[in-house]
Amino acid sequence: MSPAGDQYLLVGSTLQLNCTIVQTHGVALSSNDSYKALDLSIRHRNRSISHAQFEYYEPELTLALTIHHVTLADDGMYTCHLRNNNEIKYLTLFNVAG
């Protein structure tokens, strides 16, 4: 997930998260794996975010979430998940200040 690591935003800022399928643990994805951007999900505080809020980029296998005018309610941990797997693939903590 990018950006990686803890991020700090001011209320009213724009937040953009990108969740991309990449190789894990040094092992490239197999050509037999038929992943699509729709296989990805982003969760905020372990709650799924509606897929209607995302933009999909199939060639890059990327799911993008943009939140305009961030509020204090947007503060917290965002995680990227592949398919319906509960395993966290990537995480980013966003701290929002008023």
From TrEMBL:
Domain Immunoglobulin residue range list: 4-97
Domain of life assignment: Eukaryota
Name used for this protein in its record: Immunoglobulin domain-containing protein
Protein's organism: Dreissena polymorpha (Zebra mussel)
Higher taxonomy: Eukaryota, Metazoa, Spiralia, Lophotrochozoa, Mollusca
